[in-house]
């Protein structure tokens, strides 16, 4: 019997002036506030505690251990706990309960975001791929086959791009055909849309609503001036006012979540954005507000030209470099590698202190946001989560779209040595095995694979942001302490 390797504890002395301790087990997700004597009992339950030592336990201590065992804070031994972890990842990988598919309806975009500056400005939209209705029909057929193969009880379709609303015929076609397919199979279906918000209208929402529209994620990169600098139109005009007006028009018709990408030049404008949002009549309709840092490896990839001048020597999240010098083949950096309402990932790339600061600021204004702990395992660890590019290539997650070498297959079933090798590499992915006894493995799984690939050059090594998880747990402990005070 010993203390679980997934226990995390936060003393409440500094947070709430109490001697109690907040305990969390990241494997079972159990959370408890316990007295210091229970915390020290856990300390005593080391591997070296011999049976005779256990006999010395008082009845109260035995009862406490029983409760702790029920919640996973105490486990029989490390070997069986590690086996349970292996089983957990196996189950996550092979679960057929839910089929998740992200479809990039187009790689075209009407914005010229600051952090996307390497790629598709200039003439890129003339060559960026857009899914045809014929391809959409094949994509739908492929998804229907997966529904039959997995017998999933739920299906989540995420429409993404580029800007997905630039290809509404395909968005509507997929939504309506797949809704009918899901209905015919008794499968529940949800649609998420990740959009820059410029073309978002009540008509779009009303057309998708009968097909299971779950939520729309819109990106605001800071307060009005900052957003307009970060996310202008291709002609340079600001987009903030139009997006806000569009949000107001659709408020109440579907779940709306706000995302944002900050860097050190914009992070301080987010409290002003939060104040602005909190004052809006649509504030109660925002189901989630969460921000992430955008990180670009400017030094190695933008060594000259306006981007280099604008960004200086700042380090940003590395865009996945793909053929013809385009980042992510035109996949929107708004969400690739981070951010969606239950669709494309919302988990990677955190800068611990700023994330924690913005989480607290967001919570202070009463918005629902990420707790910074329940982040994964992300969909790259799930066999039945796929991302499909406009040309039918299949990827393991949105962060790899556009890099054809990383395609794991094609909807027409064709394969080649590259795709087979990539599929095999993703199948065996387990960077978390390098994380030894880190308590956050069940909720982190070794971090973002795209970050490992693009920043560390090896997708089999962890991309670690442990401090961010630790800050998240401290935040949870503070909330738990506050709710205890309220309840007493
Ligand atoms: S690997 Fe990174 S980009 Fe891909 S789903 Fe996971 S967290 Fe998101
Ligand atoms: S990447 Fe870091 S935080 Fe995540 S499981 Fe590994 S060691 Fe822990």
How would you describe this protein?
With 488 residues, the protein is of the alpha/beta class. It folds into 2 domains: 2-76; 96-425, Aldolase class I (TIM Barrel, Alpha-Beta Barrel), CATH 3.20.20.70. The chain has helices at residues 13-16, 36-44, 51-55, 59-70, 78-94, 124-127, 133-150, 168-185, 202-208, 224-230, 240-250, 270-279, 298-301, 306-311, 352-364, 417-427, 441-444, 449-456, 466-487, and strands at residues 2-3, 7-11, 21-25, 31-34, 74-75, 98-104, 154-160, 188-195, 213-219, 255-262, 286-293, 296-297, 315-316, 385-388, 393-395, 409-410. One iron/sulfur cluster binds at residues 337, 345, 347-348, 378-380, 397, 399, 448-450.
Q: Average the pLDDT over all residues and give the rounded result.
A: 84
Per DSSP, the total helix count is: 19
Write the CATH homologous superfamily of the largest domain. Aldolase class I
Our count of domains comes out at: 2
Bound molecules: iron/sulfur cluster
Approximate strand percentage: 15-25%
Give me the CATH fold name of the largest domain: TIM Barrel
The neighbouring-strand order within the major sheet is: 11-10-9-8-7-6-14-15-16
CATH class division of the largest domain: Alpha Beta
Counted beta strands = 16
Work out the radius of gyration: 23 Å
- Which runs of at least 5 residues are low in confidence (pLDDT < 50)? 117-121, 297-329, 336-344
- For the termini, the CA-CA separation is 34 Å
Query: Helix amount, in percent?
Result: 25-40%
Q: What gross morphology would you assign?
A: globular
